[in-house]
């Protein structure tokens, strides 16, 4: 367990000068708060996914595919927040298990289109009752109104930051 450094009034610790970044406390940073909340939620779902032989990422792909008839691989990567190389490996594994189907896009044979298979849909149906029970327990513990407000606030945060350039994008624009 991490300990906070104790310091005296001169800014010294037992180990030497106190080193503090001119930033908010690490535990209060938004990315860390979001990661901790995500971990608390996913901790509830992982045992069920493991029982069905699925990783979080595989489940995310199957859930995304269950909402559409078919989707191009590049769009699926965007929707599921996965990098291309990771998605390729996951799709290969899901295809080997016959949970998805992959074919060339009608408009461009170089592009791949994927869809969930009948076996994939059966797996979704098998996981769904446990998943919904977990959601019900989360809702009971946290509160339906608070959960709905949280979803709204997270959506508003995402929308509010959509037009904001990341540091990488700002650096690229400055170089142009």
Output the CATH topology of the domain at 50-142: Arc Repressor Mutant, subunit A
Strand order, sheet with most strands? 3-5-4
Radius of gyration: 22 Å
Annotation, overall tally of beta strands: 5
Percent helix, as a range, is 55-70%
Write down the CATH class of the domain at 50-142: Mainly Alpha
Characterise the protein shown here.
The protein is mostly helical and 176 residues long. The protein has a domain of 93 residues: Winged helix-like DNA-binding domain superfamily/Winged helix DNA-binding domain (Arc Repressor Mutant, subunit A, Orthogonal Bundle). It is built from 7 helices and 5 strands, in the order E-E-H-H-E-H-H-E-E-H-H-H. A 3-stranded antiparallel sheet has the order 3-5-4. Strands 1-2 form a two-stranded antiparallel sheet. It is globular.
């Amino acid at each position: 367990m991490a300990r906070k450094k104790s310091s005296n009034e001169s800014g010294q610790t037992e180990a030497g000068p106190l080193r503090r970044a001119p930033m908010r406390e690490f535990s209060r940073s938004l990315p860390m708060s979001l990661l901790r909340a995500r971990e608390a939620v996913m901790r509830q779902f992982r045992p069920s996914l493991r029982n069905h032989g699925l990783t979080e990422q595989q489940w995310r792909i199957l859930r995304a595919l269950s909402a559409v008839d078919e989707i191009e691989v590049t769009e699926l990567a965007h929707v599921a927040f996965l990098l291309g190389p990771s998605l390729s490996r996951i799709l290969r594994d899901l295809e080997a298990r016959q949970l998805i189907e992959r074919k060339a896009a009608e408009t461009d044979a170089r592009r791949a289109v994927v869809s969930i298979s009948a076996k994939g849909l059966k797996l979704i149906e098998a996981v769904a009752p446990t998943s919904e029970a977990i959601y019900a327990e989360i809702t009971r513990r946290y509160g339906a109104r608070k959960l709905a407000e949280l979803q709204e606030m997270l959506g508003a945060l995402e929308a509010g930051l959509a037009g904001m350039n990341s540091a990488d994008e700002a650096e690229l624009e400055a170089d142009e």
